[in-house]
């Protein structure tokens, strides 16, 4: 199962039609591990953000809709430059920040050069209430 998921993520990485990738699933099934392992093995660097642990993240998304501005601020927060195509941006527990969830559509429309993967539990319920463009 892990190999299949990793293969699908690698295909997503190489796709010209790449959109932000959203992993849905119950608690404690390995979403975080999978995202981090994918970033470690397929990218030069990873920028990991957990909305459950880092409440200061919320303000970045409340005040900004421009994906490039968001990426610049996230780079400052994690202390490294986020390079399109070379840095995997990971949003974990994204259900904790509806503005971050909403920002994914702007990444899709305006900043596909950035590789963004997000995960959270209860996303099925949230997505039913807030339709957005999602990778398939």
What does this structure look like?
The longest helix has 13 residues. The protein has 136 residues and is an alpha/beta fold. Helix content is 47%, strand content 16%. The C terminus is likely disordered. Strand 3, helix 5 and strand 4 form a beta-alpha-beta unit. The protein has a four-stranded parallel beta sheet with strand order 1-4-3-2, with helices on both faces.
Question: What would a concise description of this structure say?
Answer:
Helix content is 47%, strand content 16%. With 136 residues, it is α/β, with parallel strands linked by helices. Mean pLDDT is 89; it is low at 131-136.
Helix content: 40-55%
Radius of gyration: 14 Å
Show unreliable segments: 131-136
Give the overall pLDDT as a whole number: 89
Structural class label: alpha/beta
How many H/I helices? 6
Distance between the termini: 17 Å
Strand content: 15-25%
Secondary-structure topology with pairs:
Layout: H1 2-14, E1 21-24, H2 31-42, E2 45-50, H3 57-63, H4 67-78, E3 87-92, H5 98-110, E4 115-120, H6 123-129
Task: State the main characteristics.
136 residues, alpha/beta, four-stranded parallel sheet, 6 helices
């Amino acid at each position: 199962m892990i190999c299949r998921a990793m293969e699908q993520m690698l295909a997503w990485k190489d796709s010209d039609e790449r959109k932000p990738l959203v992993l849905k699933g119950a608690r404690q099934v390995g979403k975080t591990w999978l995202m981090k392992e994918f970033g470690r093995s397929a990218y030069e660097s990873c920028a990991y953000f957990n909305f459950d642990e880092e409440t200061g993240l919320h303000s970045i998304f409340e005040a900004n809709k421009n994906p490039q501005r968001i990426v610049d601020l996230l780079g400052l927060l994690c202390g490294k430059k986020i390079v399109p195509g070379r840095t995997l941006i990971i949003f974990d527990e994204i259900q904790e920040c509806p503005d971050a969830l909403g920002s994914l559509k702007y990444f899709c429309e305006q900043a596909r050069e950035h590789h963004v993967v997000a995960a959270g539990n209860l996303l099925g319920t949230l997505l039913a209430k807030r339709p957005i463009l999602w990778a398939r």
